[in-house]
Amino acid sequence: MRDDTETWMRQRKAGVRAKRLTAALPSGPVGVSGLNHSAAVKAAAGSLAETAGAVVGLARGGARLGRDAAGAVQFAGNLLDPSHGLLHGGRPAWLPLAQTADKAVHQGWSVARHPIRSIKQGASRANAALNPSATPVAPTATGEMQRRFNIGKNQGGLLFDIGAAALAPESMAGPVLSAEEQVAKHMAQGMDSRMAQYLAEPYGGMGHHYIPKRGVFGVKLPKIISDSPFNVLKPSGISRGDMHKLHYEVDPKFHGARLADHVGQHWSGKKQGLKKNHPAVQVIRGAPTALKRTVSGAAGGVGGAAGAMHGNQR
Amino acid sequence: MTVRCLLTFRSDLGDDGVLTEDRHEFLQWPGRLHAAVAAEKLRALGWQVSEPIDMQVVGWELNAAMGRKPIWLRVEVVDEIILMFEDLKPERTWYLARKPPGPVFTGMLTALDAALRADGRFHDLRWFTDKEYECSAPGAPTPVSEIAEMAGYVAPPPPTEHP
Fold it and tell me: What residues in B contact A276, CB-CB < 8 Å?
């Protein structure tokens, strides 16, 4: 029932848009008809509409980000508000989260049952959503403008998601501790206060190279890529001690380091009782933040654009 | 056959780390001297070896090659000296898993082990697989298992759990 209403609303909106676009064209029985079917006009108008759509897509991406952030704040507030259930007819604050999770599980199950079909469908939808050549040119200039406007909008949204993912400020995975808390943490691990203070200082080393400098499968990355934030894991603001621990856990070849301020002393992951992460976890946890954000942003953007286009086509 | 590519030892060469004036940072991280000695031993065995590469906190690295067989070495100085070796172009199965290293690589490990033992400046040489080192196994006296077993070494049981 809800789906039918949504479809009707979409069709109505598309109809109104098409009428507005037709009204914008010059009037006259012969001129309009000729221009509206001319390939050159269709190409030029479509190109303009695609650019306009990209601008709208970028703006919508920003608005969506703001809406999501506001929604997250409101959701967190609802969770913490004991009167929320009373004010909303007994509807618990966590219900939307449970509904979303339920939907995600159903979709995940569908993908898991037919992985190849799902990948093909996803790729086909993404292609149709983002590539003007993937779908046929509309018979009229107004139709072509509508088609290219939608594609531009999807491209703009994707561009925004990728940009936001790559440029978002980096944060550490865990809670950020103050210098005093860092020192206390290292002292609790059995270090003397001088070494604890040294390890609590900000890390300034080269970080962990995700694809090692020695290369993989006999292929080395160019230095400009190898030393870029997309290949080097070095969370901003991380302390020496935390970086050594992270490095030890995600790098199969890193075992410890000498400490400058304590000649003869060292930091050893094994002596700290740490364990290396499982290789599969190392692949995920050892990935630099910029790389993770870009991959997830691109995947989310393509998925979102495909979903939007899929919704428009239904 | 088990090939152990991680060597630990103690050394008389001393700490070659160079500190800043306030002794708070390294100007040169320790391990360069050991990397240079390893390079010298490998050259004596007929390998072409690069100059030591500074990897800062991680240690020092060497790239070496025998014909078309490239290998990689890293020297880490922690509580003892750690030397790690990797065959950079190993043979692989159809599903890309590494096949056991061939005779060029294992021959290099065995010959280097002998050269370091003969040097006199290096003591307590023990060979490990990555897993053996992590679970504090006692280590083997030689890098290749058949030779270690002939010398009376009994490999510890593999670790039963992994976090």
Answer: 134
Reported as a single tens digit per residue, the pLDDT across A243-277 is 999 999 999 999 999 888 665 588 999 988 999 99
Q: Which structure tokens are listed for A257?
A: 């380091």
Q: Which two tokens stand for residue A13?
A: 């909106």
DSSP A264: T
| A261–B133 C-beta distance less than 8 A | no
> Helix (H, G, I), strand (E, B), or coil: what is residue A285?
helix
The verdict on residue B39 lying in a domain is: yes
CATH number, domain of B53, equals 3.30.310
**Is B162 within 8 Å of A255 when comparing Cβ atoms?**
no
Rg (chain A; Cα; Å): 27
Does the distance separating the beta carbons of A260 and B19 come in below 8 Å?
Answer: yes
Q: Which of B61, B79, B84, B86 is the mutation pick for testing A, counting most A CBs within 10 A? A: B79
> How big is the CA angle at A35 (ends A31 and A40), to the nearest 5 degrees?
150
> Does pTM surpass 0.80?
no
- B80, two tokens: 């003892």
Nearest to B26 among A214, A260, A264 (CB): A260
Q: Decide: A293 and A258 in contact? Cβ < 8 Å.
A: no
CB contact under 8 A, A261 and B58: no
In-domain check, residue B103: yes
Q: Let me know if residue B158 belongs to a domain.
A: no
How many contacts (CB atoms, under 8 Å) link A and B?
74
Give the gap in angstroms from C-alpha B104 to the nearest C-alpha of chain A. Answer: 17
Confidence tier at A172 by pLDDT (50, 70, 90): very low
Q: Classify residue A276 as exposed, middle or buried by CB count within 10 Å of its CB (0-12, 13-18, 19+).
A: buried
| Domain membership of residue B112 as a residue range | 2-145
CB contact under 8 A, A256 and B78: yes
Residue B41, in any domain of the structure? yes
Structure tokens at A179: 């210098």
| Total of domains in chain B | 1
